[in-house]
Amino acid sequence: MKEADLLLPEPTSDCLRTALPRDFYRQETVNAARLLLNCLLMRNSPDGLTVGRISETEAYTQDDPACHAYRGRTARNAMMFGEPGRAYIYFTYGMHYCFNAVTGLEGQGDAVLIRAVEPLQGWELLSRRRGLSDEEIARLLALKHEHKVRVRWARALCGGPGKICQAFDLKQQQNGIDLTHPGELWIAPPLPEIGVPDFGEILSSPRIGITQAVDTLWRFTLENDPYTSRK
DNA sequence: ATCTCGATAGTCT
DNA sequence: GACTATCGAGATC
To answer: Is the pTM of this model over 0.85?
Structure first.
């Protein structure tokens, strides 16, 4: 399927009624990180609905020195040791949030970081939350059919974990939300009705922004997917 | 395209 | 007191 065909239908779509089940998150974390690619990040807030196709993930396991849970349970990382299928959202660098899905067995301390998504629905709302002016949003909406503009805009909105949290309004308040049921925040499987892009093979690369275990290739992207945080 | 750097505050030593 | 699963601006090539 070509990328231009990846158009989200009206919000009556199945993705509003469907969520990945608990058992999906219970599987081995590295597998979950790979399979979360192309799944749909769904966010319903009083402001409106926003949807993004997951395009970049990273796996973190408790026995991995780069993982927040590596040194055991603390108040901050407690959610990682809880039920798989819940959101683990944390604050970092004094100004950014990062969104993870808890994976593996309960009590294990694993999670998958969502590093980039392709916006599918709610471009205007995502843009406002990211601080774009009304004039800039209007200009981009008019040019959105141009591939280069669309990719550039998408990456400015959601090409990085901090950007996703700002665009999707994810903060401490959303920490611990159960992602396995449609509500204010959940993840839907890739739906054929929406269109599943064919971006080729899954690539593995070093995780970004860490200093430990830099040779563990647990960052996952799709070969020809332009909607990533970097090349 | 790739780099360096500063902002900023919660967490842990 | 040091570090951080980041971002954006500005410099440089």
So the answer is: yes
Nearest protein residue to nucleotide B12, judged by CA and C1' positions: A74
Distance A93 CA to B6 C1' (A): 12
With a 7 Å cutoff on the CB, does A69 touch strand C? yes
Give the DSSP H/E element, type plus range, for residue A97.
strand A96-103
Whether nucleic acid strand C comes within 7 Å of the CB of A104, the answer is no
What are the pLDDT digits (tens) for A37-89?
999 999 999 999 999 999 999 999 999 999 999 999 999 999 999 999 999 99
Q: Map residue A86 onto helix, strand or coil.
A: strand
Residue nearest to nucleotide C4 (CA to C1'): A93
Tens digits of residue pLDDT in A119-165: 999 999 999 999 999 999 999 999 999 999 999 999 999 999 999 99
Closest CA to A118 of A83, A78, A184, A168: A168
Is A145 within 7 A of strand B by CB distance? no
- The answer to whether some atom of strand C lies closer than 7 Å to the beta carbon of A180 is no
Tokens linked to A199: 């971006």
